Amino acid sequence: MVEKSCLLKMEGVSKSFPGVKALKDVTFTLNRGEVHVLMGENGAGKSTLMKVLAGLYNRDAGRILLNGHDVAFHSPSEAIAAGISMIHQELMPIPHLTVAENIYLGREPVTFLRTIDRRKLEAMTRELFERLHLNIDPWSIMKDLSVAEMQMVEIAKATSWNSDIIIMDEPTSAITDQEVENLFRIIRQLKNEGSGIIYISHKMDEIFEIGDIITVFRDGEYVQTCPIKGLERSRLISMMVGREIQDIFPKTECAIADTILEVKDLTLPGIFEKLSFQLHRGEILGIAGLMGAGRTELVETLFGIRKKSEGRIIKDGKAIIITSPSDAIANGFAIVSEDRKDVGLVLKMSVGRNLTLTTLKNYTFWGQFMQEKREHVSIQDQIRRLSIKTAGEGQQVSTLSGGNQQKVVIGKWLLSNPDILIMDEPTRGIDVAAKAEIHKMICSLACEGKGIILISSELPEIIGMSDRVLVMHEGQITGELGRNDFTQECIMHMATGQCLED
Amino acid sequence: MKKCTMFVMVLLVAAVSVVAQGQSEDATIRVGATMQGMNDTYIRIVTNAMEERAEELGVKLSILDGEAKAEKQVAQVENLIAQDVDVIIMNPISLDGCAPAVEKAVKAGVPIFTLVSVVKNQDKCVTYVGSDAPESGKIQGEMIIADNGTSGRVALIQGPIGHDAQIGRKQGLMEAFAGTNMKIVVEQTANWQRDQALSLMENWLQAGQEFDIVVAQNDNMAMGALKAIESAGLSDSIKVYGIDATSDAKAAIEAGRLMGTVFQDAAGQGKMAIDVAVRIANGESVEDVVFIPYLPVNKSNLADF
Amino acid sequence: MNIVRLCERTSKFGIYIAFILLCVVLSILSPYFFTVKNIVNILNQVSIIGIIAVGSTIVLISGGLDLSPGAIVAVAGVMAAHFGHPGQYPIIVPITVAVATGLAFGAVNGVLTSLGKIPPFIVTLGTMTIGRGLALLACDGMQVIDLSERYISLANSEIFGIPILIILFALVFAVFQFVLTKMRFGRHIYAVGGNETASHVSGLNVNSIKIAVYMLAGALAGFGGLLLSSRTVVGSPIAGQGYELDAIAAAVIGGTSTTGGVGKLTGTIIGALMIQVISNGLDMINVPSYWQQIVKGSIIILAVFIDMRSRNKG
């Protein structure tokens, strides 16, 4: 075990953006051989602090001491040279280059002719992957990899610098449990080699498994640092939100009524075949499964984003035809999609414009001429109702935190007053407080008599929220469980395709 | 499927080459021409005359559009050589850029000559059919002196700076003005374009530029400038001259709005090009230069054009 | 007054500051520059390219790109001029012909980019080339002359002492400003340009919106072609050369994003004026031809630089 000496000390760091004070006089210390977890709600300042450290932002005030020396980085390359590397929350691969080229971009081994030494490049990549137990071909093209594989490549790239300090900003947001295990093994290895790891995550289970010490931020301010051993979850949550949260899954029982939707023999060639299921009013139907099981494809087909080759959709006893999202919307469907930034929002537009995008026609006369006052009233209502934290409806939606962005997506669809609400990973990358709020919202919508389809990769969410769960595996529904029957183990078994005999 | 398509294509190629072989054996004279750009009104007139004359003489003529690109014209000459034509006519867009085409034709033993404009290695061409660019500027200048005496303030509207005709016409104009008190007080390019000349003249008049005579290097620009002058109510004090003798310019001369233009015999050049090509194909000798003269046009002789 | 809106307001000033600076410099260099007559002159000269730039701006906002306006100007001008000889057709005929020609080109652009999924750069490069060819074909390479008085007056008359071109430009601007800011269709243009997938999933008919945008841009270019042929009193197959780039430049100098979703017509007007003022000013102070192009390019880069600096300071 390496001696726990002080590696990094940040004192009194402040950073402002126009209109926002993102960091206020923040202190942070990292020791060698330690996994230091940073926690806080979205917008608490974790990512900003890390970007200051990694040289992406310049700080307004404060000191950064690296191994006791005062430093200030003006670019990521300076930070890397000083032994700090970062795995970003948003992946930044160069899609048309190979895996090996991506990892060693800008420091490729060269031959005496100054051309790239492909053999050496391959050897270096293979050696790196071996150390990390990764099974990825160094010569595959980056864009052909799955999101999980890309994330593992990013992790490999960060470790390849042999940095003293590695910052991981939500490294597990897109990878499977097995890969998480692998990542943790790598982290332990790096820790034993004497590196310091800064780990940002919202996932409680992970934090308790891998973290040594935790620092909590709230609204850009330092709250507290304490060892993780012996820390209670409820205390951690209250540190983060500044108040007690009763329950992350505030499931309220409400009456489940008649069938609102019936899907028969739905087929999307190559992805899934002949799927059938039902949804009732007031019901939350969870769909569980691993990545690639076809869950997202199923709901996208239902919503008309993908073209089905076969199958019938019956709503309220009547067969309906859906060939495009506008058909789906006309029939009372709404979808909060998995990919908030690319599918859910128009990032270049304001909060208000995003909220009314689907229902714009309601605020016009003759279908075309905007009635801006009525629209404004509606937007303000929605911002208040969902408690979206924004400087005003004119704020560009891209500048909101993840949780608030997601609320805008939900708010947009609620304005269309849907009967059936599809929610695909509605709380991915969102902090606990916002999660709890969204869960509460889902429950109250169900109690209003809407049918809700909930897809989640987080089993606690599926179990905590659903009235009934469908488990998918490789394009098939491998099981259906009622509220009294489901446990993590039995869902996992079905999701991995192993038949469970009871 | 693929094999079948291939087979059909091979058959077609074979058939075409047999037909082509058959054609080249008869006695018809085959002439190929590459023109600098068919979107130019003047060049259109030249090619129309060429086609007409070729038809009369039973010459097989193929005209290619160089699209104002020298490298394109070089490639077209290469293609004409490959097609084994009897004579190549080139109307080069560029003095230097089209020179390699001449080298290629000479090397392949195909006679080549230039039309309307020239190339750097003109000595390797059989001849040049056309006019002498500076001459048109000179005639324009002489006409102006004849009308206005030997002193005056001149505004010059030019073609694209660096264009052969822009250089030549200005050179000729300055030759005519040499030794007189004709002074160019302001000059600018309008890129042969009517709308640009119109805006340019508006801006000059707005800026209080004073001049008595406007010299435009083509009629298109002259007509644009004329419109700005008329709109400003200055048509009595400023006289406008052009070059080309386009139909609307001639109409303007008739109406007394435009003072004069210079007639370059486009049709005559086209017709002469075919006559010269036939003489070369028949092994007759041709002079080094075949000039088609420019002629001044004003109200007094308008009826002749 | 909230902070965000204040930031947005100040950030817009950059290009205006650059524009005013330019005008001040030119006023010092030429006593004739800052006169009512010259201002009217500049507005008159900017009108046609301005009308076309309005179309280019909405195409850029919708996430597209249009290289065909210059060619449409030529085709529409020649076609309209054919119907514009004295004593043949009422004036509405050439006007309709010009606008319909533009609409047809726009429809082809729109259908091929949206339904055909061909990149707009390729599609409009193609229609631009086709358009140039059609313009020559439509008049056999010869200019169409002998236009009626009524036709010529389309771009050359005055209403209450204001040149009609300026009035037409103001009308086009007002109508499209209304469409972009006060109509649902305008909102949809921004949404589609900002994020096509999100717009589709939100129930917008992305394809028909794109087609409509290209058609409007085509119609404006066609109308511009009509006006240009009237202003120059000739239907010329080589008219409008380089107009597409001037129009795009006006939009982009005015702050329209080349990646879609962002842009304002007021910015486009400043951008177009900027280009026009530069060439008007340089003509007035009689800068030699060689230098004009160098000065033009430098001023444009400098203006956008000032604009971006002021945005960043926000």
* Cα gyration radius of chain C (Å): 20 Å
Give the amount of beta strand of chain C, in percent: under 5%
Contiguous runs where pLDDT drops below 50 for at least 5 residues of chain B: 21-25
Return the CATH architecture of the largest domain in chain B.
3-Layer(aba) Sandwich
* Average pLDDT for all residues of chain C: 89
Across the major sheet of chain C, the strand order is 1-2
Judged by helices, strands and strand pairing, the structural class of chain C is mainly alpha
E-strand count of chain B: 12
If you consult CATH, what is the topology of chain C? ABC transporter involved in vitamin B12 uptake, BtuC
Query: What's the helix-strand series of chain B?
Result: HEHEHEHEEHEHEHEHEHEHEE
The two chains with the largest interface, and their residue counts, are: B-C, 33 and 37 residues
* CATH topology heading of the largest domain in chain B: Rossmann fold
Oligomeric description of these chains:
heterotrimer
What's the N-to-C terminus distance of chain B?
Answer: 62 Å
Q: CATH top level of the largest domain in chain B? A: Alpha Beta
Measure the end-to-end span of chain C: 16 Å
- Series of secondary-structure elements of chain C, N-terminal to C-terminal: HHHHHHHEEHHHHHHH
What best-fitting shape of chain C do the alpha-carbon axes yield?
Answer: globular
What is the number of strand segments of chain C? 2
Shape of chain B: elongated
Return the CATH architecture of chain C. Orthogonal Bundle
SSE topology:
The complex is a heterotrimer of chains A (502), B (305) and C (314).
Chain A lengths: L5 E12 L2 E12 L3 E5 L6 H8 L7 E6 L2 E2 L5 H6 L2 E4 L11 H5 L14 H14 L15 H14 L4 E5 L7 H16 L3 E5 L3 H7 L2 E6 L2 E7 L5 H9 L17 E10 L3 E9 L3 E6 L5 H8 L7 E6 L2 E3 L4 H6 L2 E4 L3 H5 L6 H5 L8 E2 L3 E2 L1 H14 L16 H14 L4 E5 L7 H16 L3 E5 L3 H7 L2 E6 L2 E7 L5 H8 L7
Parallel strand pairs in A: 3-8, 3-9, 6-7, 7-8, 13-20, 13-21, 16-19, 19-20
Antiparallel strand pairs in A: 1-2, 1-4, 4-5, 9-10, 11-12, 11-14, 14-15, 17-18, 21-22
Chain B lengths: L1 H24 L4 E6 L5 H17 L2 E6 L4 H13 L4 E4 L8 H10 L3 E4 L12 E3 L2 H16 L2 E8 L5 H14 L3 E9 L4 H13 L6 E4 L2 H13 L7 E3 L5 H8 L5 E5 L1 H16 L7 E3 L2 E5 L7
Parallel strand pairs in B: 1-2, 1-3, 3-4, 4-5, 5-11, 6-7, 6-8, 8-9
Antiparallel strand pairs in B: 10-12
Chain C lengths: L2 H9 L1 H17 L6 H26 L7 H14 L9 H23 L5 H20 L9 H8 L1 E2 L2 E2 H19 L1 H11 L1 H6 L4 H26 L11 H11 L11 H20 L4 H25 L1
Antiparallel strand pairs in C: 1-2
